[in-house]
Amino acid sequence: MKKLLKSYFYWTYPRGCFHYDIMVTLILLFIFVTPQFWNFGDRPSPSGGPLHPIQVIGTGGRGFIVTVQAADVDLDLKTTASNMAIKKALRKAIEPVTGDAVAVEYWETKQDAQGNWTWKVWARR
């Protein structure tokens, strides 16, 4: 049994024999079955992603500035919301491009030349 395991480990069998076919089958099973049971940490955005392009500018180090359209943020600009609610909505909006390990530090709203409202968000990892 030890010799058999050693020969499988070092792949000493010639092509086309029974043991070679078993090894190839095990490798293919690993490749195609593993993603069904293993969490690789990648997941699509639940909302399908942002509707508009998101601009990200690095500030050096771990910080960056993200510009996102107000239509992509699940928050109404006309209502007064708490800072925590704003941070949560902004983090959810920028998560598809920044990942989920981001802290929102500061934000401001601006109107662009076409009259669309945008959020400018300062965030860090």
Count of the separate structural domains: 2
- The number of strands is 4
Secondary-structure element series: HHEEHEE
Radius of gyration (Å): 25 Å
Percentage of β-strand residues: 15-25%
Please outline the major beta sheet. 4 strands, antiparallel
Number of helices, where a helix is a run of at least 4 consecutive DSSP H or I residues? 3
- SSE-based structural type: alpha+beta
Can you give the mean pLDDT?
A: 80
Helix content: 25-40%
The parts where pLDDT drops under 50 for at least 5 residues are none
Q: Judging from the principal axes of the Cα atoms, what is the shape? A: rod-shaped
| Terminal-residue CA separation | 51 Å
Give the strand order, joined by hyphens, for the main sheet.
1-2-4-3
Features:
2 domains, 22% strand, 125 residues, 4 strands
Describe the structure.
The protein is α+β, with helices and mostly antiparallel strands. The protein folds into two domains: 2-37, no CATH class; 55-124, no CATH class. It has helices spanning 2-10, 18-37, 83-98, and strands at 55-58, 63-69, 103-111, 117-124. The mean pLDDT is 80.
